TrEMBL record:
This is Peptidase M1 leukotriene A4 hydrolase/aminopeptidase C-terminal domain-containing protein. Belongs to the peptidase M1 family. One of its GO terms (cellular component) is cytosol. It holds the Pfam family Peptidase_M1. InterPro entries: Aminopeptidase_N-like_N, LTA4H_cat, M1_LTA4H, Peptidase_M1_C, Peptidase_M1_dom. Its cofactor is Zn(2+). Zn(2+) binds at residues 320, 324, 343. It comes from Paramecium sonneborni. The keyword Ligase does not apply. The lineage of its organism: Eukaryota, Sar, Alveolata, Ciliophora, Intramacronucleata.
Amino acid sequence: MKLVILVLLCQMLYCVDVDKNTFSNYKDVKTMHLHIEWLLNLDEKVIDGCVEYSFKVSANRLSEIHLDIYKMNILVVYYPDNGQVLKWHVESDKVQTEEQGDKLVIELGQMYKLGDTIKLRIKYQIGEDARALSFMDPEQTDDKKAPYLFSQCEANNCRSMIPLQDTPSIKFTYSATVITQSPLINVFMSGNRLLNQKFTLINDYKKGQIANIFQFELNIKIPAYLIAIVAGTVQEKSTGRRTAVISESKNIEKYQKELDELDNYLGYLENYIGEYKWGSYKIVILPASFPFGGMENPLLTFANPTIIVGDKSGVSVAVHEIAHSWFGNTVTCNNWSNMWINEGFCVFLERKGLKQLFGDINLVHVNSQVGNNEMNALIKEFNSSPDDFVKSYASLHPKTLDHNADDSFSTIPYERGFQLLYYLEKQINETRFQQLLKAWLAEYEYQSADESDFYRFMILWLKLNLDTEEYQNIKKSIDNVYTKWVYDYGQPPIQETFENPASKEVLELVNSWIEGDGTKPQNYQIFDGFKSNQKQLFLSTLQEKSKDVTVAIMTSLEDAYHISDLTDAELLFRWYNLSIVTTYAKDNTNLLKIKKFVGLVGRMKMVNPIYKALDKQTATQWYQENKAFYHPLTRQSIENIIKGKTISK
Ligand SMILES: *[C@@H]1O[C@H](CO)[C@@H](O)[C@H](O)[C@H]1NC(C)=O
Ligand SMILES: *[C@@H]1O[C@H](CO)[C@@H](O)[C@H](O)[C@H]1NC(C)=O
Ligand SMILES: *[C@@H]1O[C@H](CO)[C@@H](O)[C@H](O)[C@H]1NC(C)=O
Ligand SMILES: [Zn+2]
């Protein structure tokens, strides 16, 4: 009993390290607000930054503030109120400098006590070493008129563009003033834009040139990883009452047309989960080197151009990112071991929205099956690794201590997390589970949580809302699986197959192809009538059975469906991966097509499997040729893949 009380007390007092991937002393002092000032010099690829912090002290005595930084130049730290300059130094460890950055230690020059507020200012400079930032030359853009800049802060990369408490367990509001030295460059951030004014530089080396000043503000508390910026010759086009699309001018009409139902998607999700509280919603379609499908920056989702297929088949990424407005951005994981608190819940809500969008639950199940196939393949892959960290990536609780949290990123938190919630919904009942999720959002609104918070909340909610017998039965069925589902490295204890008529057709066609060994099945043309996700399932099932897929079958498939000429990158990367695995692509035109693909698409989900499948020599050669095109995060992950390869495969 005593122990229990001690543990509780300890948690309340924050003796527990919630997030070990930050060097900051966030338990002793908390960021309340940040004001960012950035002077963008995109020609030189440098940013002069000044950040003003409002902190609140949560320890009894505080004499230092520790912040996360990654490869930046700190110039000066001072109190804005009286100008007093403060002592600072950087504590670093050679390995950690590359992995997670360093600790900036600021000596406050006096002792603060619980409840005090502190205002500080830091002036600093960042450049191409900032791994959150992608600086692009005009030639690398669609419009080719001006340089371009975009950020990607998740997981722990915000510390490379701002010195701060870089942990999802600390939330704050922010505002920003951004000045560009070119009138062509337009800027958006993950907040409301209050001002955009042009002015003339008067005594600068660029005298007479027009500069552009922008102001932003976000009054809802967010974690560091949701700060975002895009700057370039980008413009905005409305797609509805609350929504808009932003991109360079070249393809903007195409993007606007493909995303003209964004307002409806927002409505579908609201139907299930309640009001969208962030105001407007805009999607930026970034250059093709963007490493992800989408990134849920509040009010300003970033998306990869591969989601624009022409037939709206890629818009589920948009639905996913909107769903993060609730799961991820409103209730946030408290460290990156708990990422499924964002992603699993987000996929669950996404699929509630897709049910309304598709008008057919079977087609939603097809998505879940594709997800399942990919999850199972990864669980196998991670489990076969000798590295205990990699093994843990198969669970919903990956190890990230002393590592770059990005390393643990995979489809596991999405699909394994989704499956757990799907299972819970089945035990609890759909209507009630919906109520439970709404209550969870209300309870943890604008806060951070982990899997034990969710477990405790769920059990208490069930206890309060069900009669005793039902409560006990349901609790028992949850307790039988929850811990295994979250912590074990093997398959989840229970697996839903999601079989349905729409997938049955697909699986039967795969079997006929394999049995035919190169002869086309009689009904082979039904493939052309499949929806995009059925085609994905077709290819991912072939991948599962790749041992039985001969070059003759691949040749005949290509002849029948011309898959490598399609424009849907979701299909292309699966086909190309399979082409390498089955040796259909080997020193021939097929291989050249794949080479071209990895030079045009920088989305990690799509290029990483291809680099994994290639032999070391080819992978190294292709990587060197395309390195300049890739984003810093993509570079890092491909380099890791190549490092892990042995010379002859
Ligand atoms: C994340 O939080 C969980 C508790 O929810 C803890 O077990 C784990 O060690 C933490 N991981 C890191 C890297 O801080
Ligand atoms: C699920 O719960 C709701 C609300 O408690 C109830 O009205 C409904 O009948 C239940 N559905 C099933 C299938 O048990
Ligand atoms: C790509 O091929 C590898 C084998 O090299 C396989 O393990 C992986 O599951 C495939 N990935 C996809 C997405 O098809
Ligand atoms: Zn997501």
